[in-house]
Design brief:
- This protein is of the alpha/beta class and 266 residues long.
- 27% of the residues lie in helices and 18% in strands.
- It contains six helices and 14 strands.
- It has a six-stranded mixed β-sheet with strand order 5-9-8-13-7-14.
- Strand 1 and strand 2 form a beta hairpin.
């Protein structure tokens, strides 16, 4: 008798289990179909490292930024996001614990004064990367083997190009002295403007220069400004008489005390 009661009890449990399974299958089959939203591709801001949807990011040469502020800022490695990054091997470490407190303004043109040439800016980039082909122009024969660089270049179109981190020592000043301090490369940031000593610089160049200097001053509020000719007067004439120091000062709003050589064209 007990055996039969046990079989009936087990059968009842199995029947209830089977009924629940069938009901669950029925519910799943007849449940409304839910659409699973697609997963958005994510990326990381080059400046602050925050993750954000790729569709919301600002793209720049394969890098991504979460805001225009971070795009134009100087990141933790000393690179400006809005610039075109063109790494130069012509650099080394600054002396230990020495931060830049001087911006040196230069001009450069390759070949000299030939701004209308399509590859003029490209020649400067090649020069700073030790890739300049001496066969492309007679002038290049005498300079192709030189090892020089600058932190930044601003083209005639106002394009900002960066070659060296501001935390590194670029090779732009050469034999130089600033207010009695030798070896200006050790404590300076070099900015090249595409141009020569005879042609006025473009308004777009002044705008790009002012924007860049604004970012640099966030890092170094007391940084000073000089021309290459100010720190190497017997060797250099750049940025030359065509560079408008007064215009530059007005665009940036920098106090006159940070221009130890004044605002006169020279």
């Amino acid at each position: 008798m007990i055996k039969w009661l046990l079989l009936v009890f087990v059968g009842a449990i199995f029947y209830r289990w089977l009924k629940r399974q069938r009901q669950a299958a029925f519910d799943i089959k007849n449940a409304p179909q839910m659409k699973i939203p697609p997963v958005k591709p994510m990326t990381q801001c080059q400046y602050c490292k925050v993750y954000l949807p790729l569709s919301d990011a600002i793209a720049q040469e394969g890098r991504y930024y979460c805001s225009n502020e971070h795009l134009h800022g100087v990141d933790e490695r000393g690179w400006v996001g809005a610039a075109s990054w063109q790494f130069s091997p012509n650099q080394n470490e600054r002396p230990q614990d020495l931060e830049p407190d001087l911006v040196v303004i230069h001009h450069i043109s390759l070949p000299p004064s030939q701004f209308v040439e399509q590859n003029c800016t490209k020649y400067i980039i090649d020069f700073f990367q030790n890739k300049l082909d001496p066969n492309l122009h007679p002038y290049f024969v005498g300079i192709a083997d030189q090892k020089v660089s600058s932190h930044f270049l601003i083209s005639r179109k106002g394009e900002l190009i960066q070659f060296v981190s501001i935390y590194q020592r670029a090779w732009h000043a050469g034999l130089s002295s600033f207010l009695g301090r030798e070896q200006c490369n050790d404590f300076s940031i070099g900015i090249e403007l595409e141009g020569d000593g005879d042609t006025p610089f473009e308004e777009l160049q002044y705008q790009a220069l002012a924007a860049l200097v604004g970012q640099l001053r966030k890092k170094y509020p007391s940084i000073q400004f000089a021309g290459h000719s100010d720190i190497a007067p017997n060797r250099k004439t750049d940025p030359g008489i065509q560079f408008d120091w007064e215009k530059f000062q007005k665009k940036t709003g920098i106090s006159l005390k940070y221009f130890p050589f004044g605002l006169a064209k020279r």
